[in-house]
Each structure stands twice: as structure tokens, then as C-alpha cells.
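Annual report, structural modelling task.

Input specification for the zinc ion complex:
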Amino acid sequence: MGQRVRRRYVKENTWRCSSCHHENLGRHTDCQNCHSPKETEETYNPVKPSSAEITSPELLKLARAGANRTCLYCGADIRKLNDICTNCAATRHEHREEIGADATESDFRNSTVSAPDLTESIGSNRRNDGDGNDSLPPIHRFNWPNLRTVLIVLGGLVTMGGLIWLCVWLFVPYEVDVTVTTVHWQIDRALRQKTLRHDSGWRSDMPAATFNESCETRQNGTENCNPHDCNCHEVNYDCDPHDCNCHEVNYDCDPHDCNCHEVCHDNSNGFSDCSEVCDTCYNTCSRRECDTCYNTCSRRECDTCYDQCPVYEEWCSYNFYEWPVVDQASTSGSDLNVSPPTLTAHGLDQRLDQSERYEVNFDDGSNTWTHRPENLSDFSRFPPTTRWRIKTNRTGRVWPLHPLN
Ligand SMILES: [Zn+2]
Ligand SMILES: [Zn+2]
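The model returned the following structure:
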């Protein structure tokens, strides 16, 4: 159970005059009945719960001034606020010279001189921390990304420059004067004969041009059909959530102050600092708490099954033409005297396929290039040992420009 201070306030003590036994209020330093000064032996009585709180500013000033001192000359109480003894008129200065630094004086100095020193040093430390936070981190935070960005950009530029230089080196053509060293040609001919074929199969697999078809419907396998429920079974699941196992639960509620009492500290100047201290107490409340329970329900679950139904398609017998190779011949040579094979086609039922390949090799004394002419008229421009100016690049492509005289 925690304690808390509800409020703080000041109360006034009393003291009893040893000469006439009159009870005086703490605000007076001389007896209000016989006028004899209050002496230190006439101690203050503890405050009574019934005594009133002090609110007037003058009395509060007295209450906060610190403990009274004792006059060394006459033994009367002197308020800390006063420099001169109200009883014998001895000054505070004389008092200090007589006894040197007494306890009250050093207390006074500590409380007034040391406190500003402390706060100032705390303040200057905080100011240094503030400077560090404001100036140093931003330098690191903003400079490193800049340097990294510059390096990345530089690296990118160098890489791009290298790539561009490589492309130029590879693809930009240059001219060379060369000599035709060797030439080569080859001509292939294939003779095809139109041939009637007969076949049968599913319509979806038939070739494009057929004739004399005769078809019938046949079963070509099966497929899934008539979907229906199967393998049905009951499945249990939780349903109908409802409260169950309900019971009352007690808990602390309505926190409030209790066992309040007064605690006072004597300031040794006719006043006491008091506070009202209370415990925190709780009432006992209760609430209803329940679990959530479920019933067990069940539902029917089924798989989907299929029957197997036959698939029907057209099965056909049909005729079609093919052009198989029945004869082939090749000629080749290493000069410009190109002569095709003598193989030829006769009539509409024969067909001749021909393919030609030409090759010209250049040499400039240290490098060689190969040019592949598209047709015979291009090929015949390159008699061996003639000189040519060609354009080329480092991928090996060749563009013949013109012969040299
Ligand atoms: Zn008195
Ligand atoms: Zn005195």
C-alpha cells in the first residue's frame, strides 16, 4: 500500500516562558506577558493537530528563514533574519569575530554560495554537449554520402567510357589493301520425284493437301464426364460459441486516500513544516467472467468424381504427294570456272533444288579475311592474285570496295 503526500503547509509552534509560565506563540522572541527574552533552553512545543495553518506572508517569511541562533552575550534567541540581538543589541559582526566560523555561518555560506556554482557547472556541461551534437555529426552525415556518390559516378563514367571505346574498336570499319589468295565454289543439286503416297490416321494428324479421303467415326480414347459427389463423410467442427464456466472475480477498485495523518518537522524558529500523508486504499469490486465454449456440429463433405465417356473422331484413309530426293550431284573448284552439275529435271513430275556457296580469301601479309559472295556475278570479280581495297572491322566482317590497278 503506497503512501502519498496530499499537501504541505506551515504551522506555528508555542513556547512557555520559564519566568511567568505564559504560553507564547512561535512568532514572538520575548514573552508577551513579562517581556523577558526567549532563551534557547525554552524549547518550542510540538505543534498540535488543532493549531491553525499559517498563511500570512510575514509569518511564512519567518518560518523559512532557518533555525534561530543563540546570542553569545545574553543567551537570547536571535532570528536568522536579524543581524542584531533584539535583547542586548550585539551585532552579528561582533558575534562572528568572537567565535570565528560557527556552524550556522558555514551552513549559511554553503546554501547561498555553493548552489549557484553547482548550477553553473551543470549548465556549462550541458552547453558543451549541445555544441557537440549540433556541429560534429552533421559533418560526417553529409560528407560521406557525397564522396561515395562522386566515386560511384566516376566509376560509372569510366566503365561507360571503356564500353564505348570497346564498341568503337570492335565495330568502326577501316580500309586495307589486300591480295586475293584463294577462291572456292561449290554447287549442290538434288533431283526430286513426285510420288503418290497412301496413308491413314486421325483427321487431326493428317497432312495439309490430301485427296481421295474415306473416313469413318471411331472411338479415340475416353474423357472425364458426368461429375458427381463421391466419398461422402461427416466432418465435425466447433459451432454455436456461448458463455460457460461463469464466475465472480474480485478486484481492487475506487482508489482513495485513507489513514491520513499529519507529519511535522520543527524548523527551530517557532514554526514547523507539516505535510498531510495518506495511504492509498481500495474497495473490493467484483465482475462476472466467462469462458467461451462451443458445441460440436457436423457437416457432410464429398469429393467430385467423374465417369469415363468415349471420345469419337474421324479415322481416314487418304492419298497425298511427296517429293523425295531420288538423285543428287555436286561440283566444286578453286578457280573462277564455275560449272554446275549436269543433273536436270524432266517433265512436271521432277523438281531440281540447287544451292551455291562461294568463298574468297584475302591476305595483306599479316592478316587474312574471308568474303562470301551471294551469287556468281559477285564471285567472278575476284580472280586470284588481283589486288583489292576492302573495308573491314575487328569482328572480321568484310566489305570489298574496288580492285586496285
Ligand atoms: Zn514571561
Ligand atoms: Zn544578546
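Residues 95-140 have pLDDT under 50 and may be disordered.
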